[in-house]
Specification:
2 copies of one chain form a homodimer. With 300 residues, the first copy, chain A, is α/β, with parallel strands linked by helices. Chain A has 2 domains: 2-174, 3-Layer(aba) Sandwich (Rossmann fold); 179-262, 6-phosphogluconate dehydrogenase C-terminal like domain (6-phosphogluconate dehydrogenase C-terminal fold), CATH 1.10.3660. The first copy, chain A, is 53% helix and 13% strand. Chain A is built from 12 helices and 9 strands. Chain A has helices spanning 12-23, 37-45, 56-60, 75-82, 100-110, 154-166, 176-202, 207-213, 216-221, 229-238, 240-262, 266-292; strands at residues 2-8, 27-33, 51-52, 65-68, 91-94, 117-118, 120-123, 143-146, 170-173. The radius of gyration of chain A is 21 Å and the shape is elongated. Chains A and B meet through helix 7, helix 8, helix 9, helix 10 and helix 11 of A and helix 7, helix 8, helix 9, helix 10 and helix 11 of B. Chains A, B: One of its GO terms (molecular function) is prephenate dehydrogenase (NADP+) activity. Chains A, B: This is prephenate dehydrogenase. Chains A, B: Keywords: Amino-acid biosynthesis, Aromatic amino acid biosynthesis, NAD, Oxidoreductase, Tyrosine biosynthesis. Chains A, B: Its EC number is 1.3.1.12.
Chain lengths: 300, 300
């Protein structure tokens, strides 16, 4: 039981976390903090939070658990405001898509109290944003990756793990570097590729004709190009080294594919396409298997 | 009213065409031809076709309309078998994703009778294939692109147009070259990019870890990498020149994106992402508007 949790950023991610813990009957008071008064008011009306903090000091008083669910670029500013009133029993976690830069920002802001920060990343989302989009089931069956610091105590790590498990999530542990490398490949690169494709098509003289005949394949391929430009600018810049590596690998792969096609090498093209089809099929089967047995998928 | 139509290839595309015309009460007899006896039997059991042709000659006798819905690479072989028994009242159309190479194959096979061939491409599909996947509503509200030949008569063009309109489709006209250029950009390129990404991930030592953390963004981006390797090998090879041009344009775009990121040029990255987000948003709004007013969208 958490007597008091504090959510910085009461949108989809923070609001759903609050809503899930409330539904699980696992929390006393939920306090919201944020830049937008309108969002905070709406979160209170929707019952996501019990009250809006009058100040960071007020929010942090007697807090058991703090979730940072604001854009990653605000991490240092928020933690700098938290630090002067951070009590020893409080554990802070976050929901940022990048872990290396978040940890660096946390170290600068928290100094010796860095042990109280357990970095995390829930692998869940929806097309919509804001408190209206928050739902208690957002994390059910989803993965949450924690990238614990050497300074974290077992008790602190367990508190954050249990909170996410109460939301229905399967908690996994990775190093921050492994996290950022893996997500550069399977999330950040595809986002940049989708943005780049739509941007390029939109700049052409015949863009209207192109979009007129674009169908469901194009629609799914580019769904992630509908994501927030500001958020993805920040992710690109904060995970720059890993993403540059992924872009180079992909440029090599496309150059190799181009050479196969230029040589009319049908067997090589078919082998590449078949390898991709098989790998994707096996992946989807594993997902279905994991979803059928959610308890066995829990690492922690 | 079409007294007799013939479907070469009674899978998703051919079977749905037959099923839609039947539902519209627009056809007398539907005859199926194909390489797979099992598929033909199943199509007959499902009521997609009235009977299986005993020979191509039998199929073509007194036919009003023929749809080629077999893989594009079989176009020349099928039309070569049709040509000796092609009667003057019969119109042939096809459903191939490529038009330039299909027309070249048709000219070689049909010679002076090329006037009876009206090339077409329905922009519709589903994840599943085969006669079991055929549904009468597959083409409702979807686009069908016809790329008429100078030799086609108005009557022949009208017969094919009306057949697709009876299926509920909106018929558009493009030149074959324009068709192949447009679809290289909005369909063929994204398919190759998706195949390339999954193939590259699957070859890595840490492929299991990568796929373990791949989420819904990766899933949608790579959905089209689940497509048929043989079909996409054929499409790539038959639309090679246009696709090579698209690959070069995209390689330039990714190289430019890489340079922005290497220079930590946040404003340039955000401008590219925002242009893509805006273009995609406007495109989806146009689709929704068109779907709300299907009749006004019909070009023909």
């Amino acid at each position: 039981m958490l007597n008091k949790i504090v959510i910085f950023g009461v949108g989809l991610i923070g609001g759903s976390f609050a809503s899930a813990l409330r539904k699980a009957g696992a929390v006393g008071e939920i306090v919201g903090v944020g830049r937008s008064t309108a969002s905070l008011q709406r979160a209170k009306e929707l019952g996501l939070i019990d009250r809006i903090a009058t100040s960071v000091e007020d929010a942090m008083r007697n807090a058991d658990l703090v979730l940072l669910a604001a854009p990653v670029a605000q991490t240092h500013a928020i933690l700098s405001r938290i630090q002067p009133c951070l009590e020893s029993q409080t554990v802070i976690t976050d929901a940022g898509s990048i872990k290396g830069e978040v940890i660096a920002a946390a170290e600068r802001a928290l100094g010796a109290q860095i042990a109280q920060f357990v970095p995390g990343h829930p692998i869940a989302g929806r097309e919509t944003t804001g408190p209206e989009a928050a739902i208690p089931d957002l994390y059910v069956g989803k993965k949450v990756v924690l990238t614990p610091l050497p300074q974290n105590s077992q008790e602190q790590l367990a508190r954050v793990t249990q909170a996410w498990q109460l939301c229905g999530a399967n908690v996994h542990m990775l190093s921050a570097q492994e996290h950022d490398t893996v997500f550069a490949a399977v999330s950040h690169l595809p986002h940049l590729l989708a943005f780049a494709l739509v941007d390029e098509c939109a700049r052409r003289d015949n863009a209207d004709t192109l979009f007129n005949y674009a169908a469901s394949g194009f629609r799914d391929f580019t769904r992630i190009a509908g994501s927030s430009p500001e958020m993805w600018r920040d992710i690109a810049l904060t995970n720059k080294a890993a993403i540059l590596g992924e872009l180079d690998t992909y440029l090599q792969q496309i150059t190799a594919l181009r050479a196969m096609l230029a040589a009319s090498d049908g067997p090589a093209l078919e082998a590449m396409f078949a390898n991709a089809q098989n790998a994707r099929h096996a992946w989807l089967q594993n997902i279905e298997k994991a979803e059928a047995q959610p308890e066995q998928d829990r690492d922690a």
